[in-house]
């Protein structure tokens, strides 16, 4: 627990003032919580006309005697009012005093809560921001191993749990213990013998409660993992709804979801029941102590006559005053166990090392001047090499096409050039500089990427296109749309470039979405363009529109085109034919046809389709 608390400390630094004020107000709350009970004693004394008459006005003799001075001052004023103005005035003074102490107790409670609320919400905001920054910064390979839903559960559920649970510690170590401490000091002043029972009760109840909560952390971890799985299932169901329905697989997914929420139901019940047990368990143990005190204290009042009845009533109220903080301590200790499990999952993500880091002395490069050189690279995603001793040079202004069957490693080249992944062996250089030594944002600033899947966001057309150039004007957006052969259909939309295109752009056709992706790359205006099977998912008519857009875009640019349909790359300066991660042929379209090899077979097969 200490480790996770220490990890959380940096997030509390901006809110030091809130922490200090929370502690101060909690101390004052604890003090007035006790005083509010003690002020009931003079009230009872006045009601039962037992107040000890103090004739001489007391003198303040230093802070160490403040308790004695306060008591004598109060009884002096009660005596004085009794004599001069009658018992009604004395009673009014005591009632006003009771009201003031209870008011101050609750004001300080509110102020303490006010500052801890600012602390909790501030740390929640900062943790979420740090978590989101980390999620966005983590490299693509990390997410090939993880469920998106698990990430969402950590961002939403676990961070919330940390906020709700860990700040219970402030109350666990300040507010409630001090309330108990001040109350016990007051109780010791009334009767040492009676207070011994309280000293016996607190450690026994603490031991019993800790025994009950021992397995809570493990169950919380399992519940949080299950929560991640179930969120992931919802996310996958929504994104794959067409496939689920077309294969009549609703029943399979309903069963999977039902099993998941049933497991979550069991874990949540186990955790909830243990949490629920904390409060009644501590209250029951408190009542057992109160009952013992009633029996023993009653004897002191009625039989031994060694304790005043009014004092005994105040003592019982003080003893009962311990029960609430004792309950809160047991609840908070359970909450901390839940928070501990959540914090481990949050910090597990925050502490993941980025496997594709930016070099500490990264080179800032804003231009592309001569060539891209890929030298003897080997790369594997898991076990088998996807690229084997692959070498290629792309000169500035050239269009180089990569062709080959699925799985030959074409798209891997795009992933390596943009440093979504790093090569295992060999180097990739731009203008003679290893891309690992380039600032990663500069590298990606030089490259425009259009993928087979048109990835668009639930926002306006303008916002989607302006991703690479936030300050783009409407005129620049429209110009990019014209180059991408998309202005015509956008202009017919109800709000033009300000039209919202829905989740993943689902209000548009496949061809329209792809042309918007091209417009986004055009507006970014990078010197190097990578087109990863940008037309393979389109029908023939859409492909013609997109092909015109791509040709417009590739003018005066260096382009690497990963193509499935060979008709789209015949004008390329160089065509590289790949097979099982190796280059088997390269040349122009005419040269490769004349070779009558692999490329010619691929062209023949596609012309027969």
Automatic annotation (TrEMBL):
Its main location: membrane. It comes from the Bacteria. The lineage of its organism: Bacteria, Pseudomonadati, Bacteroidota, Flavobacteriia, Flavobacteriales. It is found in: Cell membrane. SMART domains: AAA (SM00382). Pfam families: ABC_membrane, ABC_tran. The gene is msbA. Residues 73-338 form the ABC transmembrane type-1 domain. Residues 372-605 form the ABC transporter domain. It is a multi-pass membrane protein. The chain crosses the membrane at residues 23-48, 90-112, 180-209. GO terms for molecular function: ATP binding. Gene3D superfamilies: ABC transporter type 1, transmembrane domain, P-loop containing nucleotide triphosphate hydrolases. This is Antibiotic ABC transporter ATP-binding protein. Keywords: ATP-binding, Membrane, Nucleotide-binding, Transmembrane, Transmembrane helix. PROSITE patterns: ABC_TM1F (PS50929), ABC_TRANSPORTER_1 (PS00211), ABC_TRANSPORTER_2 (PS50893). SUPFAM superfamilies: ABC transporter transmembrane region, P-loop containing nucleoside triphosphate hydrolases.
């Amino acid at each position: 627990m200490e480790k996770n608390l220490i990890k959380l400390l940096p997030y509390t630094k901006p809110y030091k003032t809130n922490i200090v004020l929370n502690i101060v107000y909690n101390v004052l709350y604890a003090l007035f919580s006790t005083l509010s009970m003690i002020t009931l004693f003079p009230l009872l004394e006045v009601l039962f006309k037992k107040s000890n008459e103090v004739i001489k006005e007391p003198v303040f003799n230093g802070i160490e005697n403040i308790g004695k001075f306060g008591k004598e001052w109060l009884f002096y004023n009660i005596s004085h009012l009794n004599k001069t103005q009658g018992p009604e005035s004395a009673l009014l003074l005591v009632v006003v005093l009771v009201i003031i102490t209870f008011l101050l107790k609750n004001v300080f409670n509110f102020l303490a809560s006010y500052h801890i609320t600012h602390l909790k919400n501030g740390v929640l905001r900062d943790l979420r921001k740090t978590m989101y920054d980390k999620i966005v910064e983590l490299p693509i390979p990390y997410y090939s191993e993880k469920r998106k839903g698990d990430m969402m559960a950590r961002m939403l559920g676990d961070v919330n749990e940390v906020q709700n649970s860990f700040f219970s510690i402030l109350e666990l170590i300040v507010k409630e213990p001090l309330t108990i401490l001040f109350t016990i000091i007051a109780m010791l002043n009334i009767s040492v013998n009676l207070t011994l029972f309280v000293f016996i009760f607190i450690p026994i109840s603490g031991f019993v409660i800790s025994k009950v909560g021992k397995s809570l952390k493990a169950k919380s971890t399992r519940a949080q993992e299950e929560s991640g799985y179930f969120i992931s299932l919802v996310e996958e169901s929504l994104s794959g709804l067409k496939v689920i329905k077309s294969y009549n697989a609703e029943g399979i997914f309903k069963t999977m979801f039902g099993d998941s929420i049933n497991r979550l139901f069991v874990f949540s019940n186990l955790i909830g029941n243990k949490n629920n047990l904390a409060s009644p368990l501590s209250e029951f143990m408190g009542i057992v102590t109160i009952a013992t005190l009633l029996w023993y204290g009653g004897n002191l009042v009625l039989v031994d006559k060694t304790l005043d009845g009014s004092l005994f009533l105040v003592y019982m109220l003080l003893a009962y005053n311990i029960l609430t903080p004792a309950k809160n301590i047991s609840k908070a200790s359970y909450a901390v166990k839940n928070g501990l499990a959540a914090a481990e999952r949050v910090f597990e993500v925050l502490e993941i090392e980025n496997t594709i880091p930016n070099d500490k002395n990264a080179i800032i490069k804003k231009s592309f001047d001569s060539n891209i050189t890929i030298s003897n690279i080997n790369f594997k995603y898991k076990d088998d090499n996807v690229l084997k001793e692959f070498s290629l040079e792309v000169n500035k202004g050239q269009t180089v096409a990569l062709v080959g069957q699925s799985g030959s490693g074409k798209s891997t080249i795009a992933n390596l050039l943009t440093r979504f992944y790093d090569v295992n062996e060999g180097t990739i250089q731009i203008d003679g500089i290893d891309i690992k030594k380039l600032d990663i944002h500069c590298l990606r600033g030089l490259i425009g990427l259009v993928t087979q899947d048109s990835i668009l966001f639930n926002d306006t057309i303008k916002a989607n296109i302006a991703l690479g150039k936030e300050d783009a004007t409407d005129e620049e957006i429209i110009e990019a749309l014209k180059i991408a052969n998309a202005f015509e259909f956008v202009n017919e939309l109800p709000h033009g470039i300000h039209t919202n295109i829905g989740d993943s752009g689902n209000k548009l056709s496949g061809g329209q979405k792809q042309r918007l992706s091209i417009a986004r790359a055009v507006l970014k205006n990078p010197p190097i363009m990578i087109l990863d099977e940008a037309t393979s998912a389109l029908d023939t008519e859409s492909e013609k529109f997109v092909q015109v857009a791509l040709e417009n875009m590739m003018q005066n640019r260096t382009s690497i085109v990963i193509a499935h349909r060979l008709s789209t790359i015949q004008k390329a300066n160089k065509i590289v034919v790949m097979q099982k991660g190796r280059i088997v042929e390269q040349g122009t379209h005419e040269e490769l046809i004349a070779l009558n090899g692999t490329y010619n077979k691929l062209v023949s097969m596609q012309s027969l389709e």
